[in-house]
Amino acid sequence: MSPLLELWVVTRTELRRTIRSPRTLVLLILFAVFTAVTGLLGGAITRGVESQGPEAAAAAGASLIALFFGGDPSLLAQLSDLPLLLPLVFGACLFFLPLYVVLLGYDQLSAEVASGSVRHLAVRARRGSILGGKFLAQAVVTLTVLALVVLALFAAGARLRPVVEPVGYLTFGLRFWIGGALLACAYVALTSLSSAVTASPAASLLLNLSLLFAFWLLKVMAGASSTTEVLRWLSPLTYLGGVFVSGPPYATSLTAYVCFAALFLAGAWAAFRIRDI
């Protein structure tokens, strides 16, 4: 069987199993509830800010955006064209998205290694196809959820403020989804790496959560000192703000997430390729 056909078979099988899993349903409901509650809060904040008048609303909106994403002038200028609801809620979703990804797929490989079922799979498909198929299945589920979130947010935003330029508005939505999708793929690859180097789902979950905390700590602690500030660029969270602005910052964020995903997947493949199963 060709590698591409193996990849397709593993992806299809894993995707079917993921969709039918009760854990996936519970996580989807929790993520939907979180998004809805955040959306209601964001909508209330947006209506309160925009009721103050144009100048006061612009100043209050800029202050809120700067609080969450930094005070970059180009970022503030571009996001001012959107209802405040969109960057606030989508930013919150992207911040908590890594945790959702971890809970969804922390046992990608470790569960099958622990049960021994990976031995039967390994005689039918290459290890690279197994790893790639499991990664793609989880990525498809995560990116679909993210697309639904973007559609719901931009539909709600259109009700809060009339859309003057539909093409530009849709472009914002597509740009948000692409940036969030690559961020999600980087963290899906991280779950693959954690699952490939551990021998049980519990160990994989613990390692994955530890890495998430380490990335957050690296961004916060390294950015607090001028001598260690360069280290914060090793954290995927550092590039989150670039998802919301076009131009070089957006390209930098996309490139960073592609590199993170490739690095994590390469590590997962190297670990899974040599491990005794």
- Which stretches are poorly predicted, pLDDT < 50 over at least 5 residues? none
Structural class: mainly alpha
Outline type: globular
The profile of the biggest β sheet is:
none
Number of domains: 1
Q: How confident overall, as mean pLDDT?
A: 84
Run of helices and strands? HHHHHHHHHHH
Q: State the share of residues found in helices, binned by percent.
A: over 70%
Annotation, overall tally of beta strands: 0
Number of helices: 11
How far the N terminus sits from the C terminus, by CA atoms, comes to 21 Å
Radius of gyration: 20 Å
How much beta, percentage-wise? under 5%
What is this structure, in a nutshell?
The mean pLDDT is 84. The chain has 277 residues and is mainly alpha-helical. It has helices spanning 3-20, 22-50, 54-69, 73-79, 85-105, 110-115, 118-122, 127-160, 166-196, 201-223, 248-274.
Task: Give an overview in words.
The protein is an all-alpha fold. It is 78% helix and 0% strand. Helix 5 (85-105) runs antiparallel to helix 8. The protein is globular. The mean pLDDT is 84.
Q: How does the SSE layout of this entry go?
A:
Elements: H1 3-20, H2 22-50, H3 54-69, H4 73-79, H5 85-105, H6 110-115, H7 118-122, H8 127-160, H9 166-196, H10 201-223, H11 248-274
Helix pairs in contact: 1-8, 2-5, 2-8, 5-8, 5-9, 5-10, 8-9, 9-10, 9-11
List the defining traits of the structure above.
0% strand, mainly alpha, 277 residues
